[in-house]
Specification:
Helices cover about 55% and strands about 5% of the residues. It has about 1200 residues and is an alpha/beta fold. It comes from Dactylosporangium matsuzakiense.
Length: about 1200
């Protein structure tokens, strides 16, 4: 469906116009269309449909009647949806012309700001072409009036933007001038229109008319408003006046041959920096797009500069002393300065001639690719800036110039899409938009689709979002599909060749881009960089030193040098890293939000210079300095040979100090990070590269580094070429084995959070170490690492991945059985079993379970505490409650450590639940909670509280259940376990129905559903609970819709527990019963009972049996229905007070049968054995 509201209402379905007759039908459709996909409340629809009154006596039914008529008028089902107290039009927002207009206009404005006038013109014309007349003519009321006014303003702004984009084109200027005159007649006080007219007339050679246009605008403003012209209008006037005395010299920048994609926000920020600072250096890795960004910003700044913007390419320079001559030649060739100053009898030296010639000019000089002549570029920049007061320099380099007054502007990779994104999510990522744009240029018609979005995202992610790499990959889409290209990126350096023939040689292949930086490194820097390639994740200096077999202090210096040279990045804040305790010599995380870095070198101190939020300011001073204010988000670094008194730092700042003589701890405001010594071997401060937030401050951890994957692949190849890869990987594995073995026992104590923060950032490295040990046949160390990591993996929120890695270790053990230590085999095997179960793999091989029990029996005593739990847990999986209970009680009677005691009580609680003993479940889980509280173990406490809340809810103690859920949620949040936390949030919300009423529960559940960060399985749970609320209210259509949506989401989710599927199928059967569709109800209940029995979950079997009781009652067998209801209680272990169906049916059957017959039937049901009860509740006829 396509809907047009920018003019008379227009509707198309499958390309076919649809006539919507009747004012109210058009009004309803228009009102829903302006908020597509969102539910509009009945009250809002009433206000739109009857804006002048009177309101119908029954507004809800009146709206429903109009909705029904609109459904018929559209002739196609599915576009109108009811829910959440209102109605929604189910169409893509882009299907509504007004939404499409806003997006196109916004994109056009961004392109205009980026000086991409071709794209801006195309986008803005497309936006304005959508208008067919006045907006929303069929819709009245205050809301409609506000929308109409807003869109009218956006339309006028888009028209202004389009004129600005085309005003410099002689072919369209005459039309632009005529349109401006018409618009000014309609909007005489709009100053931007007047400024554009002045500019257009001036560009057309009509200087006198331009000056007259200014006088007319000034007079209107003075006469009607009593105000002076705005700065924009005055600037346009001044530009006309200055034109004769100072002919503009725009510079030597070339017109862009491709659209500028992905860094629109950077253009605005960088332009502001260049306007405010005299020396700005773009720093970042090769291929990040520094040159294109600098040229784009320079083009935008060239117009107001009397002497323009001039770009000098330094990449071809081979000798540092050639730099001044190359710059002089570029500027003189372009006519900015004469080839000789004329002030000397002989030709001056290039530096002197540059300084003399540039001194009176107001010019922007762009020095591109300074890294290989960094010293010469830095020295010349400092000389020219000191002697030419109106000169500004914009430099690009892979490392800072490191001179007085330099502002650093980090240029990292383009933002990436998430893995496996939806189409709209993928297209929001700048890296994907760049690939789409460049691929369409070489393969017309190619675009990103829902089918290839995942492969496109994978390409961008594998290439780190580096623009040059993405452009090289886009060229390959001429002959490969995205899926084929993604599969071949393992050999990216061979694949990504054949770039632009006119580009510099080092930009024609991906290999050449990295090799250029590599060749600039010293031998020590190069050797370390190669070794660092074995880290697939982030790492700190201690880990790097272990791999390099070198002192940490020496390695630390080299790491920061590699950061300076854009071969390493300071990693974005890793989850939990800020909670780790480290020695005071550790380095603290640095802010890596996009922003500027201002560097000041001063032998005598200096007064404070303003620094924008997000900037890093570095001061070098041999003496002390008075306290300087630092704006929020800044990093202030001080070098001082002596101590210094504490300096105030505002919230959000990072303060770092260098003091060889030591210093006392400095106070840092909340939200700040206090850093230790941060410097490179060259004495330069550490400078962050790449985007990323600074986390909250607890005990801070060391700085973590990361290497872009493209650079890492290059370094790995170099490491392999010199035959050192095996040694580096072995040292890498040894380091992380030691870390995890040290951490493992602490993860079951009150220091759990601290150690989680220590090990969580290194899990990519641990996985890589496991892979290396398994592949190399080092099975003994592989099992040691699996046993040390398994418990962390068990509560690290990714059970499927954990089971995969543990399974890989077990497979390696099967290839080398003699090398596997028996005590470690049982730990790894049991952890694999538990993670498989948590991940939803409920099919356990009996022989495998027997083997696991045998392994536990053979393990030496005093080993890992999990060995004691193996056989009881296996009994739980097998639903052997009698054997499991016996085993647990035997172990509890002996001597076990406190953590194992808590776990045994928890296992016994679940055994009692499976046996239908809810009182026993409550008792054992309470004991487990007390045990975990005593030792401060949060994970065991969180899990147990969640199960205890379930037992409390079934007993009808709803306030206690809500309190247990809330404490468990808080603990999950502390531990960073999102998947279980989401389930608990929904469960808590559902229980609020009993403590605060259905409206409170419904509000919480709706908020959860509308949270786009939640996954489908958890949203399915929330939809189910909302369906229960709707059914309780008697709204069967809404309940059915919610149950259907819950089931749909469940079908799309991986590895869903069978008992949960049983619950959703049972809910759908309840709808069938309410509609007296007994055949369908029976079919669903047969499916639900089979699922519940396959999971051996007696409480869920009881829940299904309650519905089976309803089926029996619907067939007229009331006595059997009462017996089944009692059997359901027997199987579930209690009267489930949280199940309103049980309560409702019990009272209905008591009334229908009479008290005594009902009591007798109940007694017969409760007297059955489990086998007899299961036979009775079978829904088969």
């Amino acid at each position: 469906m396509q809907v047009g509201v920018l003019g008379p209402l227009a509707v198309e379905i499958d390309g076919r116009p649809v006539e919507v007759g009747g004012a109210r039908l058009r009004t309803l459709l228009a009102r829903l269309a302006v908020e597509p996909g969102r539910f509009v409340s009945v009250d809002q629809l009433v206000a739109a449909l009857w804006p002048d009154g009177p309101v119908p006596a029954d507004p809800a039914n009146a709206v429903q009647s109009v909705v029904s008529r609109l459904r018929k008028a559209l002739g196609v089902a599915g576009f109108l949806e009811s829910g959440f107290g209102g109605y929604s039009l189910k169409v893509d927002p882009a299907a509504v012309d007004a939404i499409r207009f806003e997006r196109l206009a916004a994109d056009g404005r961004r392109a205009l700001r980026a000086d991409d006038r071709g794209s801006a013109t195309r986008l803005l014309r497309a936006a304005l072409d959508l208008w067919r007349g006045p907006a929303l003519p069929d819709l009245g009321g205050d809301e409609a009036d506000a929308l109409v006014a807003r869109w009218a303003e956006l339309r006028l702004a888009a028209a202004e933007d389009l004129i600005e984009a085309t005003v410099d084109d002689p072919d369209t200027r005459a039309g632009a001038i005529a349109e401006l005159q018409e618009l000014i007649a309609a909007h005489p006080l709009r100053e931007r229109l007047a400024a554009l007219l002045i500019r257009a007339l001036h560009a057309d050679g009509r200087r006198a008319e331009a000056l007259a246009a200014f006088e007319s605008a000034r007079a209107r403003l003075a006469d009607q408003l009593g105000v002076d012209p705005s700065p924009e209008l005055r600037d346009a006037h001044v530009a006309v006046l200055r034109a004769e005395a100072h002919p503009a010299r725009g510079g030597n920048l070339r017109a862009a041959l491709t659209s500028f994609v992905g860094r629109e926000d950077d253009v605005e920020r960088l332009a502001a920096q260049v306007a405010d600072r005299r020396l700005v250096t773009l720093v970042g890795p090769g291929g990040a797009g520094k040159t294109r960004l600098a040229a784009t910003v320079a083009a935008g700044l060239a117009r107001p500069l009397p002497d323009g913007a001039w770009l000098v390419e330094l990449a071809p320079v081979t000798e540092a002393e050639e730099v001044p001559a190359v710059i002089l030649r570029a500027l003189s060739t372009g006519g900015l300065i004469p080839s000789d100053s004329g002030r000397r009898p002989r030709r001056a030296e290039p530096t002197e001639q540059l300084a003399e010639s540039l001194a009176p000019l107001e010019v922007l000089l762009v020095l591109d690719n300074c890294e290989h002549v960094i010293g010469a570029a830095a020295g010349l920049s400092e000389e020219l800036l000191g002697r030419c007061p109106k000169l500004r320099i914009l430099a690009t380099s892979r490392e800072p110039l490191g001179i007085l007054g330099e502002t650093l502007f980090p240029v990292g990779p383009l933002p990436l899409p998430p893995p496996l994104p939806a189409l709209d999510t993928a297209l929001r990522a700048p890296s994907v938009r760049l690939l789409r744009d460049r691929a369409a240029a070489v393969r017309p018609g190619w675009t990103v689709t829902a089918a290839n979005a995942a492969a496109v995202a994978e390409i961008c992610r594998r290439l780190d979002g580096l623009p040059l790499a993405i452009e090289l990959a886009a060229a390959r889409l001429r002959s490969f599909t995205p899926e084929q290209l993604a599969a071949r990126l393992g050999d990216r350096f061979r694949l990504l060749t054949g770039g632009n023939r006119t580009a510099l040689p080092r930009h024609q292949t991906l290999h050449a881009v990295v090799a250029w930086s590599w060749d600039l490194l010293s031998d020590d820097e190069r050797a370390l960089a190669e070794s660092l390639a074995v880290f697939p994740g982030t790492f700190d200096a201690a880990a790097a030193a272990a791999i390099a077999h070198a002192p940490e202090a020496a390695v630390e210096e080299l790491l920061h040098t590699l950061v300076d040279r854009s071969l390493l990045q300071i990693a974005p804040g890793t989850p939990g890293a800020d909670e780790t305790h480290h020695p005071p010599t550790g380095r603290s995380p640095q802010p890596v939000e996009p922003g500027a870095v201002e560097v000041h070198h001063s032998p005598g101190g200096r007064s404070r210079q303003p620094v924008e939020p997000g900037a890093v300011e570095v001061h070098h001073s041999p003496g002390g300095r008075s306290p300087q204010p630092v704006e929020p988000g800044a990093v202030e670094v001080h070098h001082s040979p002596g101590g210094r008194s504490p300096q105030p730092v505002e919230p959000g700042a990072v303060e770092a100090h260098h003091s060889p003589g030591g210093r006392s701890r400095q106070p840092v405001a909340p939200g700040a990070v206090d850093a230790g010594a941060l410097r490179t071997s060259a004495g330069r401060p550490l400078l962050p590269v790449g985007p990323g937030p600074v986390g909250p401050v607890g005990p801070v951890g060391p700085v973590r580094f990361r290497m872009l994957e493209t650079i890492r692949e290059f370094a790995l190849a170099e490491l392999g070429r010199r035959g050192a890869a095996g040694d580096a990987r072995s040292a890498h594995a040894a380091y992380f084995l030691a870390l995890m073995e040290e951490a493992e026992p602490h993860l079951r104590t009150e220091t759990q959070l601290e150690w989680l923060a220590r090990v969580r950032p290194d899990q990519d490295n641990v996985h890589a170490a496991v892979g290396y040990l398994c592949d190399s046949g080092d099975v003994e160390r592989a099992f040691r690492l699996g046993a040390a990591s398994g418990w962390f993996w068990t509560f690290a929120d990714n059970h499927a991945e954990s089971a995969l890695w543990l399974g890989r270790i077990l497979a390696a053990g099967e290839r080398h059985p003699a090398a596997v230590p028996p005590d470690l085999r049982v730990v790894v095997s049991s952890m694999h079993l538990v993670n498989s179960g948590f991940a939803g793999d409920f099919q356990f091989d009996p022989a495998r379970l027997d083997d696991l029990i045998a392994q536990a029996a053979a393990a030496p005593p005093g080993g890992h505490p999990f060995v004691e739990l193996v056989e009881p847990v296996v009994s739980l999986f097998r639903d052997d409650t009698e054997r499991g209970t016996e085993l647990v009680r035997a172990r509890l009677a002996g001597r076990v450590d406190p953590w194992t005691r808590g776990m045994l009580h928890s296992v016994l609680g679940h055994l009692r639940e499976n046996d239908g003993d809810i009182d026993g479940m409550h008792r054992e889980l309470t004991a487990a909670v007390e045990a975990f509280r005593a030792i401060g173990e949060r994970w065991g406490l969180a899990m147990t509280l969640a199960s205890l809340a379930d037992a409390q809810g079934r007993h009808g103690d709803f306030p206690a259940a809500v309190a247990s859920f809330e404490e468990s949620i808080a603990l999950h949040h502390d531990l960073g376990i999102r998947s279980s936390e989401a389930y608990l949030l929904v469960s808590r919300a559902a229980l609020r129905r009993h403590t605060e009423g259905p409206q409170a529960a419904r509000a919480m559940l709706r908020a959860f559903v509308e949270d786009v960060t939640q996954n489908g399985r958890d949203v399915s749970h929330a939809m189910l609970e909302l369906g229960h609320l709707a059914r309780a209210d008697g709204d069967l259509p809404e309940a059915e819709r919610l149950y259907q949506e819950s089931w749909r989401l469940l079908q799309e989710a991986p590895l869903v527990a069978p008992q949960y599927r049983a619950i959703v199928v049972t809910a759908r059967a309840e709808i069938d019963l309410a509609r007296n569709d007994l055949a369908q109800a029976r079919t669903r209940l047969q499916e639900a009972m089979a699922l519940a029995l396959s999971a051996r979950d007696m409480p869920v079997v009881g829940k299904v049996a309650v519905a089976v009781s309803g089926l029996a009652a619907a067939t007229g067998d009331l006595t059997r229905a009462a017996e089944i209801l009692a059997a359901a209680q027997l199987l579930a272990g209690t009267r489930d007070a949280s199940n309103t169906d049980w309560t409702t049916r019990r009272e209905a059957l008591r009334t229908a049968l009479g008290p005594n017959p009902f009591k007798a039937a109940t007694a017969r049901g409760l007297a059955l054995s489990r086998e007899e009860a299961l036979a009775l509740v079978n829904p088969n006829p």
